[in-house]
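Journal club prep, shared notes

We agreed each person brings one worked example of a sequence with its structure written out as tokens. Mine is M18 family aminopeptidase. I'm keeping it raw so we can talk through how to read the token line rather than staring at a rendered picture. Sequence first:
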Amino acid sequence: MENLKSIDELLELVEQSTSAFHTVKAGIEQLNEAGFEPLDLTTEWGLNRGGKYYLNYHDSTLVAFTIGEQFDYNEGCRITAAHSDFPCLKIKPNPDLRKEKYAQINVEVYGGAILNTWLDRPLSVAGRVVLKSDDIFHPIVRLIDVKRPIFVIPNLAIHLNKEINKGIELNKQTDMLPIGAILEEVEKEWNQYQYFMNFLARELHVNKEDILDFELNLYVAEQGDLLGMDESMISAPRLDNLTGVHAVITGLIEGERKAGINVGVLFDHEEIGSKTKQGAGSIFLYTILEKIFCSLGRTRLRFQEELFDSLFLSIDVGHAFHPNQEKKNDITNKNILNQGISIKESSVQSYVTDSEAIGIIQQICEAKEIPYQKFANRSDGSSGSTLGSIASTMLPIKTVDIGVPILAMHSARELMGAKDQIALVNLVKAYYSL
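Then the structure, token by token:
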């Protein structure tokens, strides 16, 4: 298969990106290696033609951009966006539970996870922890990834639930509580009622009393795999939306455009609606773009004029045709694995439909021989939306929703065609180069 480098990079990113915070961390490491410079929102920016920059916002949203060496007026921006988060289980405050000899933790479901796919899988913990500091208004923030399985949510045996294969609804509060220890093994060493908090303190090498709060999630502690008789498919956790993250960062680093400004964004909170300070439903991106143009000597009015000649690619996974559930797809717009990226269209704007903008992307694909397909929902159903329709209300410019088609979207493991990732990376690179 051509360009296996993209596949290897995606699988490595899956292993690194175990929380939204670690997704941004992995992106920053790639940008640093490529010579990008960090910026701070609270300071004045001195930007230069040919410069490469990035901004870390609340550790879970990332903006990176390049300024063409020949940057001039009336060139606009080429923007791509993906999201850093994924459906998972979030650990609640005061998480420790005890039932008989079992140590469990209290969790809540984040996003639209397929709950039964999380059962019987090895689960680990990642996220960030906030610690006491000498400066009250600047507490210490630490990222953590335990990197080994410590939790599991066991299924109930079929002998005790003989109707299980007829379908069962899992209760998010009672059925999804993970087991982390058998207390006979740990009760002598750990505080009787705070097993997880003591474990967390040990992992961070801090006193338990120094932990003020945390944003931690469970993740499936499994690696991604190439599979199939011809190794043409990828099965992995978190393909939604690490496929988009990989394409945005790689395309931005390798883009060769000499004029204008290229911008890549990884938004947090797409899986819960995007309407947060670091989500696509905020003025964050508009504010950043305005500051970029003003730092380059443009007036606010000039910025607005150039903005409307810009283009926005919203990159998220799409729905592939399922051979066992063919009636779930539109009758003339079936997207097949390994047949190219999905260009997603919807008359109700759940995908941002603009035929002129789509025409631009199609011409890029055809010029670079990049395979593509068009996706539409069945007329009697729907299949979700992306950050594109939300972001475009805050940034009213030409927008296109694209992504790789996948199966088992929002499962603990998802399935995609390996060639589609290569096509997506090639498209974003061309978009940033032409």
